[in-house]
Amino acid sequence: MSRLPTTSGANDVTDAAVPASMVGRRYRSGDRYEVGREKVREYARAVRNHHPAHWSEADAADFGYGRLVAPPTFGAVPGYLAYAEVFDTLLPGYDLSRTIQTDQMIEFHRPLLAGDRIGFEMCLDSFRHAFGGDLIVLRQTIVDQDDRPVLTSRTSLVGRADEALPTWFDAVVMQGVRPDARQQRRVPPPRYVGDDSEPAHRIPPPPASPRVRRFDTVRPGTELPGRTLTVRRGDLVNYAGVAGDPNPIHWSTDAAARMGLESVVAQGLYTIGLSVDLLTSWLGDPGALRSYNVRLTNPVHVGATGGRIEFSGRVKHLDPDKRTATIAVTAEHDGHKIFGRATAEVVLA
Questions:
Q1: Do 208 and 277 contact (CB within 8 A), yes or no?
Q2: Which residues, other chains included, contact 84 with Cβ-Cβ below 8 Å and sequence gap of 6+?
Q3: Could you tell me the pTM of the whole model?
Q4: How far apart are CA 21 and CA 16, in angstroms?
Q5: Distance between CA 318 and CA 191 in Å, rounded?
Q6: Closest Cα partner for 78 from 267, 244, 270?
Q7: For 255-306, what is each residue's pLDDT tens digit?
Q8: CA distance 328 to 118
């Protein structure tokens, strides 16, 4: 994990920076996001998710979907906007563009489709000191136009409060993400909707498509076909623009060096997104992914000639009653594991 920079004169952070009463409180975003058809394709291209249901409406229909299916990690695109609202209004002492992600857990209730008008319910799950800063765990539930859950994610971030930004920061950060620029959007602030509980109106996930891999063809220990990808700096710039990630350590060598990194590093969710194609290509249907939990332990350093990532997967457990499989995913870069733990639950036909 990348070390957060220190700034002379920065205040020491105490638990008082985030009132205990904020933990466990749920807020609904003041705006909605419409999933665009071309945005689905743009994101699929960025994370190299090749399943035809992301690209062709005719192919999506063959899998039983009326519209294009967004890649499983597409929620990162509108999700960042929702998190920005949380940091602006509920965690104003922290800067989202200067946090480091450590964990990502996603539970899929149904596939996200082009044309969905989604809203966001957010909750500060926990807050504590860790990794030389403050560990912030945010839970986000994406709901559709009928207020039914689409997916629930839990993201762990490390940051510091009230740390003065260095003078060079505004020269490299993406424009339009500073607080004064966001205030000009005049988006209604998040509203309080209740204390800690999972959202109501949960619906059972859809049944497995007939085109999903059959349960009786899989055994514990079954290996998924591996994937080796080369990630270049242009890929990181592209993903930053597609997903709206403003952290300059992903494209500015100067910013990366000032933060003690040997080169720019890949975004955590970008790396997770790249790994998803390993799963969906083997499954046959992206809608068969039920959950994906990843702990990020080492960054992917992308030098002048790029960075190489090797993905592999293995069936760890089968549940004959639910007809599900647990798959352990491994990702390595320069001989180092970049996923400390990565498991996916999938449903089989």
A1: no
A2: 96, 177, 182
A3: 0.85
A4: 11
A5: 42
A6: 244
A7: 888 888 899 999 999 999 999 999 999 999 999 999 999 999 999 999 999 9
A8: 30
